[in-house]
Amino acid sequence: MTISEENYIKVIYHLSLVSPKGVNTNAIAGMLDTKASSVTDMMKKLSDKDLVSYQKYQGVTLTEKGFHSAKMIVRKHRLWEVFLVDKLGFSWDEVHEIAEELEHIKSEQLINKLDAFLGFPAADPHGDPIPDAKGVIKKIEKQLLSEVEINASFHCVGVKDSSTDFLKYLDKQKIALGSVVKVIDKEDFDDTLTVEIDGKRLTISNKIANNLYVQ
Amino acid sequence: MTISEENYIKVIYHLSLVSPKGVNTNAIAGMLDTKASSVTDMMKKLSDKDLVSYQKYQGVTLTEKGFHSAKMIVRKHRLWEVFLVDKLGFSWDEVHEIAEELEHIKSEQLINKLDAFLGFPAADPHGDPIPDAKGVIKKIEKQLLSEVEINASFHCVGVKDSSTDFLKYLDKQKIALGSVVKVIDKEDFDDTLTVEIDGKRLTISNKIANNLYVQ
DNA sequence: TTTTATTTTTAGATTTGTCTAAATTTAATT
DNA sequence: AATTAAATTTAGACAAATCTAAAAATAAAA
Ligand SMILES: [Mn+2]
Ligand SMILES: [Mn+2]
Ligand SMILES: [Mn+2]
Ligand SMILES: [Mn+2]
C-alpha cells in the first residue's frame, strides 16, 4: 500500500463513521484537498485491491480488509501522537501533522514495541481511542459537554474538533484532559454555558461545549 | 525534497567519503538498486536544485547545500537507530531498514527533541557518529582491529560493515560495542588473529578484524 | 594508436497520482 | 414530469520516477 492509498483509506474510515451507508467522492476530495476526479481514479484502484467496495455514483464503503488496514493506520497515528506528547514534550496541537507522516512507517514490530514502550495507552492526546494490535477499539464512554445535565460533575476526556485553534483556546482557558467540569448554568437564548473548571468559573459558547467530550 | 531525492543525496554523501573527487553513476545505481539511466536523470534534477554539481561523464559531487542536507538525513537516520535500540529494544541488526524510512520524516523540531530525549548521543548503535543540529560531526578516533599492534588492549567502538550477517556473527561471539579486545597473536600466512574478548579466547579471520573498529 | 570494452547518456515508454474540461448521472426544483 | 442544479465520472494531459534499448563518450587493451 502506498502512502497515498493509506491516506485515502484512513479518510474513508473517518467519514464512514459518520455516513456508514457510503462515503461521497466529494467528501473524500474535501478531506484530502484533492479533486473529485482524482478520488474516482483512486477508488477504482482501491476497489481492484479489494480495500473498498465501489459502484459508480453510489459512494464507497470499506471492505473487511480495508477496514482493518484503516484501523492499523489510525493505531499508528495515535500511538505516535502519544509518543510525541508524552516522551518528546510536544503540545497536543503540534502533533497531528507529524503523526500524519509517521503513520506510514511500515514495520508492525515497530508499532507493537512502541505500544509497549508507551505502556499500552488507551487513548491519544486528544482522547481518541487507540486500536489494539488486532484492531479492537475499546469504546470510550463520553458525552458532549453541550448535552450534559446541569450541576453534575464530569471529567474532560476528549475533543471532537482537534484543530490548532480549538486546542490553543483550551490551553488558554486551562482546560485539559482530566480537568473537572461542572455546568452551573445554561443560557436559554443561545445555550451559552457557565461552567466551573477545576474550581474556576468560566463562560463558554455552545460551539465550545459542542466540541468537548466529558465523562 | 522528495524521499527519492533524499535517498540519492545520502548515497552520494556516503560514496564521496570514499571517492571525494566525484562519484560514479554506476556506483550510485548499485547502492540504490536502480539503473544508471535513472541516476543520470536524477543527477540533472539535483543539479537544477543546486544539491550536486554534475558534469556529463565526470561524476558528481555534493554542493554545500547538498552536503548539509545529506548530514541532516544521516543525523535523522542515526538518531532513530539509537531510539529503536535504546528505547524500543530492537537489536542492532534490525534497525537499519526501519531507520531508512524514519529518516525521511520532515520535522526539524521532531529530530531535535528526539536528540534531547536520547541524551544527545554521540554515536549510533553501530558506532557511527551522529551529526549535531548544525551538521558538525565529532570524529571518533578509531582503528581497524586488523591494523592494531599485538598485546595492547582496546575497546570495540564500531563496525565498518553493518550487514545483518556480520552483526549476527558478532552477537554469536558475544562481541559488542564496549567489549575489551586484546590481540594475542597474528598468523603470518592469512592474518588470522587470536584475540581475547572480555577475557575469552577467540580466533577470528582477517575479514572480521577488517570490519571491527577499536580504540 | 587503433581497437575493444566499459561506462554513461539519450530516446522513448511505463506507472502512479494528479489535474482540467467536458460528459454523464443523480438529485432537487419548479 | 420536465427542467435545472449538483455530484460524479470520463477523456486527455502532465510531472515524477523508473525502465529498456540504442547511441555516445571515456577508459583499457592490443
Ligand atoms: Mn498521512
Ligand atoms: Mn489525535
Ligand atoms: Mn531512506
Ligand atoms: Mn547505523
UniProtKB/TrEMBL annotation, chains A, B:
Residues 1-63 form the HTH dtxR-type domain. InterPro entries: DtxR_MntR_Metal-Reg (IPR050536), Fe-transptr_FeoA-like (IPR007167), Fe_dep_repressor (IPR001367), Fe_dep_repressor_sf (IPR036421), FeoA_core_dom (IPR038157), HTH_DTXR (IPR022687), Iron_dep_repressor (IPR022689), Transcriptional_repressor_C (IPR008988). Signal peptide: none annotated. It is found in: Cytoplasm. It comes from the Bacteria. Its main location: cytoplasm. Transmembrane segments: none annotated. Gene3D superfamilies: 2.30.30.90, Iron dependent repressor, metal binding and dimerisation domain, Winged helix-like DNA-binding domain superfamily/Winged helix DNA-binding domain. Keywords: Activator, Cytoplasm, DNA-binding, Iron, Manganese, Repressor, Transcription, Transcription regulation. In the presence of manganese, represses expression of mntH and mntS. Up-regulates expression of mntP. Homodimer. Belongs to the DtxR/MntR family. This is Transcriptional regulator MntR. It comes from Flavobacterium lacisediminis. The lineage of its organism: Bacteria, Pseudomonadati, Bacteroidota, Flavobacteriia, Flavobacteriales.
